[in-house]
Amino acid sequence: MLYEAMLIFGVVFIAGWLFDTLTQSRHALTLRHTRQFWLFIVLGAYFLYCWMRGGQTLAMKTWHIKLEAQDTDNVPFSRAALRYLLAWMWFLPAMALNFALGLKGWESIGVIAAGICLWALTAMLDKDRQFLHDKLAGTRLVSLAPVQPSRKK
Q1: Are residues 99 and 40 in the same domain?
Q2: In whole angstroms, what is the distance from residue 152 CA to residue 27 CA?
Q3: Are 118 and 138 spatial neighbours (Cβ–Cβ below 8 Å)?
Q4: Total structural domains in the chain?
Q5: Within a domain: residue 116?
Q6: 35 near 16, Cβ under 8 Å?
Q7: In terms of residue numbers, what domain contains 51?
Q8: What is the pTM of this model?
Q9: Residue 112 lies inside a defined structural domain of this protein
Q10: Which of 14, 70, 114, 133 lies 20 to 30 angstroms, CA to CA, from 121?
């Protein structure tokens, strides 16, 4: 996730620059909700394009991971879009709790970290070790790592 986040930073930076240029925005809070919606759409387009095109983002290629639909190698638009929306569950419940409780600072970061850890633990509940959003979207992550030959002694 950290490597993916570093790569996405470039996508978000360019999308933010484009948004500010087109709207003549001079302050980050100007058109805040429109900016958030724009970035949500841009990130969705990035992930959907990568997942539908070859099942991999650049970070997934580096780590030899591929996204597949459970019944086919290609990921159709409907499943990729559903996976993208469900993947926000890594963050949204914790963010909603932060908002409801009015948390700020380290408490807020702690709640979000706990939410991420709890969502990651959903993979332990699955016999194939797939995350809940993949199960619900009908997708799965597969390893493409080359198998190392065993050494005979």
Answers
A1: no
A2: 64
A3: no
A4: 2
A5: yes
A6: yes
A7: 1-66
A8: 0.85
A9: yes
A10: 70
Domain membership flag for residue 75: yes
| Residues 59, 1 share a domain | yes
Whether residue 109 is predicted with pLDDT greater than 80 in this model: the reply is yes
Q: Which residues contact 120 (CB under 8 A, 6 or more apart)?
A: 90, 131
With respect to residue 152, please indicate whether it lies within any of the assigned structural domains.
Answer: no
Same domain (yes/no): 37, 56: yes
In the numeric block, the tokens 């996730």 are attached to 1
Contact partners, residue 141, CB within 8 Å, separation at least 6? 65, 66, 67, 68, 130, 131, 134
Compute the residue count for the chain.
153
pLDDT tens digits, one per residue of 42-66: 999 999 999 999 999 999 999 999 9
Given 33, 66, 99, the domain boundary residue is 66
Write the secondary structure of the chain as one string of H (helix), E (strand) and C (coil).
CHHHHHHHHHHHHHHHHHHHHHHCCCCCCCCHHHHHHHHHHHHHHHHHHHHHHCCCCHHHHHCCEEEEECCECCCCHHHHHHHHHHHHHHCHHHHHHHHHHCCCHHHHHHHHHHHHHHHHHHHHHCCCCCCHHHHHHCEEEEECCCCCCCCCC
Give which of 63, 87, 52 is closest to 7, Cα–Cα: 63
